[in-house]
């Protein structure tokens, strides 16, 4: 037996001391076992727990049964009829024609190719569709807001296609070997409406805002009020206008606006009105009492022009000396059309000294008109008969001129007259059967006008309520 070294003895002594210290530490942390008697604290805990159990048993229904031991109840058996087990059925998607229409409203910047790609239309069906006459062209002309529709079942072929062609809806049936075309019925609604507003800074802009077309505005300025209203100098910002038109709606969308049926415009408190009526097969505009609005001569032979120089003596802008101005000047852009003031025979077309390129028209009964400083002539020749409103040339600045404008003269038996003050007799008014027919046909349009304008008829005068008057109504000037 080998004798242990001092180092080993020291290690054994340290191990014994460590074990003794661990036993003492554990004795302090672990409580002694139950010795058969409860402490006061343990009795208090037991009483509290028993009180809680009693309260739960009294307040909660069924709690006493929940604490009871489970008992075995007899079991009952019931026979059930089970379905036969067969192969799994797959529910097919929609297969009937017309039950899978997808409507697409074209957005700004969107093309037909992008729409076809988004819908994942089979290439074979797409190629077949685009080969159909007219489809490819219409798809290239798609505009924002246009509506197209596809009968395209999920994962299936393209069975139908709807689109608008020249304003009409068309449906293409692609289920057969040949594509079959049918017209899609559309709900068409014609509404007689009155569009009204104030002139503001621009009659053109105000008219477009309320829904009038460019053609409607041309009818106002060139047909109805061209003799009675100078649209450059007579209008103020607060002047009112009201226009009656027929609008055509298809499937809830406005597709067409017809000609002006009736119109009124107020300038300086005076009401001007016009109603469309067909006389001897020729449509024209008349006052509410049946007088024609046509005149032998147009007051302004150039539309939307600005009067820059009146009739009478003035200092010539080029020559610099005082001389008689034998006509009136209208400023307008180069190339603006110039119209014949009335029915006439072309007297001369060519260069007239300081007047530059000019045209003279003979209207008969000693009346002639002269148009100067043109940039070029229209296709007219001396001796040719033309009607009122025919374009005879275009605004320019030829001859002694400081800028593009029209110099316009009116002569009676060679004597110069002021074109703005010429009063020529109008055509004979309607009477008898024609007047009664006119009253009947214009009654509807007149009713629409009265919805927005307070118009009262008294003999041959038309009076309009003046909203700015303190009395509420003032008399308008009698029309001549």
From TrEMBL:
Its main location: other. This is Murein DD-endopeptidase MepM and murein hydrolase activator NlpD, contain LysM domain. Residues 191-309 form the Csd3-like second N-terminal domain. It is found in: Cell envelope. The chain crosses the membrane at residues 43-63. InterPro entries: Cell_wall_metabolism_enzyme, Csd3_N2, Dup_hybrid_motif, M23ase_b-sheet_dom. Its cofactor is Zn(2+). PANTHER family: CELL DIVISION PROTEIN YTFB (PTHR21666:SF288), PEPTIDASE-RELATED (PTHR21666). Residues 323-419 form the M23ase beta-sheet core domain. It comes from Solilutibacter tolerans. GO terms for biological process: proteolysis. GO terms for molecular function: metal ion binding; metalloendopeptidase activity. Pfam families: Csd3_N2, Peptidase_M23. One of its GO terms (cellular component) is cell envelope. Keywords: Hydrolase, Membrane, Metal-binding, Metalloprotease, Protease, Transmembrane, Transmembrane helix, Zinc.
């Amino acid at each position: 037996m080998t004798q242990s070294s001092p180092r080993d003895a020291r290690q054994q002594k340290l191990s014994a001391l460590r074990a003794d210290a661990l036993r003492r530490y554990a004795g302090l942390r672990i409580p002694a076992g139950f010795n058969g008697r409860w402490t006061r604290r343990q009795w208090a805990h037991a009483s509290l727990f028993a009180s809680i159990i009693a309260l739960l048993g009294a307040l909660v229904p069924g709690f006493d049964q929940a604490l009871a031991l489970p008992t075995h109840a007899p079991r009952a058996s019931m026979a059930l009829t089970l379905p036969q087990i067969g192969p799994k059925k797959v529910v097919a998607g929609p297969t009937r024609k017309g039950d899978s229409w997808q409507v697409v409203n074209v957005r700004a910047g969107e093309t037909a190719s992008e729409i076809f790609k988004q819908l994942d239309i089979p290439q074979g069906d797409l190629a077949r569709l685009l080969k159909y006459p007219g489809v490819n062209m219409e798809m290239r002309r798609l505009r924002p807001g246009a509506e197209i529709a596809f009968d395209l079942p999920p994962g299936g072929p393209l069975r139908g296609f709807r689109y608008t062609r020249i304003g009409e809806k068309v449906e293409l049936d692609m289920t057969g070997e040949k594509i079959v075309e049918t017209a899609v019925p559309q709900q068409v609604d014609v509404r007689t409406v009155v569009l009204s507003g104030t002139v503001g800074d621009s009659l053109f802009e105000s008219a477009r805002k309320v829904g009038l077309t460019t053609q409607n505005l041309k009818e106002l300025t060139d047909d109805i009020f061209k003799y009675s209203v100078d649209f450059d100098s007579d209008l103020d910002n607060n002047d009112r206008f009201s226009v009656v038109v027929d609008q055509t709606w298809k499937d809830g969308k406005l597709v067409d606006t017809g000609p002006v049926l009736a119109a009124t415009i107020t300038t300086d408190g005076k009401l001007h009105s016009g109603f469309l009526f067909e006389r001897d097969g020729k449509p024209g505009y008349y006052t509410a009492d049946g007088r024609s609005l046509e005149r032998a001569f147009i007051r302004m032979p150039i539309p939307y022009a600005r009067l820059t120089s009146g009739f009478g003596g003035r200092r010539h802008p080029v020559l610099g000396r005082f001389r008689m101005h034998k006509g009136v000047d209208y400023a307008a852009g180069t190339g603006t059309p110039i119209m014949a003031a009335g029915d006439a025979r072309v007297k001369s077309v060519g260069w007239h000294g300081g007047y530059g390129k000019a045209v003279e028209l003979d209207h008969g009964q000693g009346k002639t008109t002269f148009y100067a400083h043109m940039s070029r002539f229209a296709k007219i020749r001396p001796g040719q008969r033309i009607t009122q409103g025919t374009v005879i040339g275009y605004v320019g600045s030829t001859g002694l001129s400081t800028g593009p404008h029209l110099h316009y003269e009116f002569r009676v038996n060679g004597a110069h007259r002021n074109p703005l003050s010429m009063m020529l007799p109008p055509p004979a008014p309607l009477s008898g059967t024609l007047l009664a027919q006119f009253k009947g046909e214009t009654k509807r349009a007149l009713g629409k006008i009265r919805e927005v304008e307070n118009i009262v008829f008294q003999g041959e005068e038309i009076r309009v309520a003046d909203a700015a008057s303190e009395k509420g109504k003032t008399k308008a000037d009698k029309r001549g």
